[in-house]
Amino acid sequence: MTATTDVDADFDRLPVHALLVDGTTVCIRPVLPGEHGQLRALYEEMSAENLRFRFFAASRRSARGWWPA
Predict the structure, then answer these.
(1) Distances (CA, A) of 7 to 27, 37, 60
(2) Which one of 9, 21, 30, 50 has the fewest CB atoms closer than 10 angstroms to its CB?
(3) Residue 59, SS3?
């Protein structure tokens, strides 16, 4: 039997489709290992106001803990 970590379990999750208020359908899925740089760049480019509304805090550090440096 092979042990799985929480990270392995995250990658095994199936995408979820969600309906937004404006009628748009979006696909929500885990970030793949090759996409971490893009996600980090997204957080670094967000304004303080966007960070506060999205995460209820104005901190770019929250994104840094989710993947290896």
Answers:
(1) 20, 17, 21
(2) 21
(3) coil
Task: Tell me phi and psi for residue 16, to 5 degrees.
Answer: -120, 135
Q: Is the pLDDT of residue 69 over 80?
A: no
Q: Beta strands 16-19 and 25-28: pairing type?
A: antiparallel
Q: pLDDT tens-digit profile of 14-50?
A: 899 999 999 999 999 988 889 989 988 988 898 988 8
- Torsion angles phi and psi, residue 25, rounded to 5: -100, 135
Record the tokens describing residue 25, joined without a space. Answer: 């359908």
What is the Cα–Cα distance from 18 to 4, expressed in whole angstroms?
A: 28
**Rounded Cα–Cα distance for residues 2 and 12 (Å):** 14
